Every structure is written in C-alpha cells, then in structure tokens.
Amino acid sequence: MSSTSLGLSRRIQRGEATPYLFRKALLLWLIVGWFGALVLPWYQAYDGFWSFIWIEDGWPLDDEYAPGILQIFMQDRWWLLPLLICIGLPIICLGWKRDDPRLANHLMGCGGFGLCWILLQGFIIGLRGWNSEALQLMLGSPGPSQEGMGYGALLVASCLLFLFTQGWSLRGGVQGDGFVTGSIGMNVLLVLLFIFYPVVKILFSALLNEEGSLAPILFVQKLTSERIWQLNCFNTGLSCGVAWNSLYLAILVGITTTLLGLAFALLLTRTSTPGKKNLSSYNSSTNNYSPFCYWVRNNTAIRALRGCKFSDRLGLWNSPFSLDLRSARCLVCSNDGLHSNCFSGTDWSC
C-alpha cells in the first residue's frame, strides 16, 4: 500500500477526510426527503403501489394524489406537518463541522422523532377515521381519514431513517461507520414492519372471538387443536400438523445454511481458488486494524489502564479465563494505532 493511501486511510479514521463526503451524503438524503414531500403523491393510489395512473389523473392538485406539502395546506391534514419540520431542521447541519457535538444529537433527534411520528400517525388514523375506539369516545367524532402511504411517504421515511443512523454513527455506533449503521437500521425497521408486526397482530387476534372480545379459553382451544399437533403423517396418508411442518422446515434451513457456511469456510482456508480473497472479510485495501486502533486510542477505559500495573503473580497472564492485553498492546502499537508509550507505567512489554 502506498504511503499516500495509508495516510488517507488514517486521516479518514481521525475524521479529517470525511466532512465533505458526509455533507454530500446528508445533502443527497435531504433532497430525497424533500422530493418525496414536495413532488410525489403522499398516499398510495387506489389501484396499487406500482400504478402510475396518478401522473395523468389530477396530480398534483387532486386530494388523492397530492404531495405531502399540499396535503397539509390544502386538505387540512395537519398531522403531516411535524414530518416536514423533521426533514427541514437538519438543513442547518450542512453548515456544521462533522466533529460538532450538536450534530449527532440533532440528527438522531430529528430522525428518531420523525420515524416514530410517521408510524404513530399511520397506525392511529385510518380509512374510517380514528383506529382506536377510545379516541373516538374521547374526541366525540370519528376523526380524519387517510389512505395508505405512497411514494412520498416512503422517501420521507427513508430520509428520516438515514438521519437517525448517521447521528448514531457520529456518536460512535459501529465504530462510526455510516454505511453499516444505515444497513442495520434499514434491516431492523423492515423486520419490525414486515415480520414482527404481522406475527404479533396474528397472535393477538387469536385471543379475540368473533365479537372482538378477549376469549382466553378459545385461544387455548385453538392452540391445542389437532390441526396443529396431529401426527397422522407417520401412520396414514394425511399430513402432520402445522407445528411439525414448521419444525421440519426450521431444521432443514438450519442444516442447509450450516453446510453452506462450512463449504465457504473450506473454500477460503483449504483451496487455492482464484478470487477467494474477495470473499474474505479480512481482505481490505486499508489497514485492517486502523478502525480498532483509532477506537482504542480514543477510548477512555483503555486510557485509564495506562497507569495500571499488573504482574504474573496475580495470575492474570496464565489464567485461561483472562484476556492478555499485552498482545493487544503489541498489535495496536505495531500498526501505529497507539503511541509507543500508550501503556507507559505498566510492566507490559512486547
């Protein structure tokens, strides 16, 4: 690796080469969010998400296809206004430095509140007004109505998610890697919306009877039904219960993925297949330990160890349950992550 690229890598880890790229990415996602709020229909078209009939069917002034900004001021859907505020306040962050302590809190606050608000208003307000009978009784009216979210809401939600994950990375999440924090945030949100929420809703509906009242006895009857636990597949031509079918699929998936992982591991360690370095997580165009070294160098807990003195008499180095930090010290110092006198005052030596 050339000295220039190595120097750039270390500058990136210290936050000296990233302000421009970070500001550029922040500006891009703010443009995406505002494009969704000002241009695209906020609500889903009646004939499906992938239908583009709205382009020639009254957009953008029609109440069904109007963008978010017009839904607020022309259709009196005032509950959408906080979302525009949440993607508007981060504009001032474009003039802040990346190491400004206000930046992380500002982005996390706007992104987190906006995500919670867009989910809350979506669950509370439905096609027939308030989705909660308690709100109808409390407010004395069926309440406003709205359709499902469309293109505009999707882009605004994506922008809010990016703001939150970037704020999280600035506060040290995943060693400050904005791409990884964004990927984690996106996957967590998708799992919550499309897996966790439907499963919880189905399980909760099992506790209700046809009138919508709680019926725990009926739930026990459904849970112990023969359709779930029957074993007819062993002695007849009928199928087994859904519980055993699910267990069979889970075991099959576990075995298959384990064998697949084993195959890739053997491919990387026992063969000389061309291009296998591209599959290895240890291969990198930069110093493999520079993110770790940067974290150790700036971590208060590690700095506190500088004045500690340990010896072999305490059994710390010979215990199988201990962590030999002397090796870590040699590793980090050898990669210029720490100064050579990082652990001055200790009896650690390489």
Number of domains: 3
Element-level helix/strand string: HHHHHEEHHHHHHHHH
- Please state the oligomeric state of the protein chains shown: single chain
Q: Biggest sheet: strands side by side, in what order?
A: 1-2
Query: Into which percentage range does the β-strand content fall?
Result: under 5%
Report the principal-axis shape.
globular
Which helices and strands, and how do they pair?
Layout: H1 3-13, H2 19-38, H3 68-73, H4 81-88, H5 101-124, E1 125-126, E2 129-130, H6 133-139, H7 151-170, H8 178-205, H9 216-223, H10 226-229, H11 242-270, H12 290-298, H13 300-304, H14 325-334
Antiparallel strand pairs: 1-2
Helix pairs in contact: 2-7, 4-5, 5-7, 7-8
Give me some keywords for this one.
two-stranded antiparallel ribbon, single chain, mainly alpha, 2 strands, 54% helix, 350 residues
What does this structure look like?
This protein has helices spanning 3-13, 19-38, 68-73, 81-88, 101-124, 133-139, 151-170, 178-205, 216-223, 226-229, 242-270, 290-298, 300-304, 325-334, and strands at 125-126, 129-130. Mean pLDDT is 76; it is low at 4-17 and 281-350. Strands 1-2 form a two-stranded antiparallel ribbon. The chain is mainly alpha-helical and 350 residues long. It has 3 domains: 13-176, no CATH class; 226-279, no CATH class; 290-334, no CATH class. Helix content is 54%, strand content 1%. Helix 5 packs antiparallel against helix 7 (151-170). The chain is globular. The chain contains 14 helices and 2 strands; from the N terminus they run αααααββααααααααα.
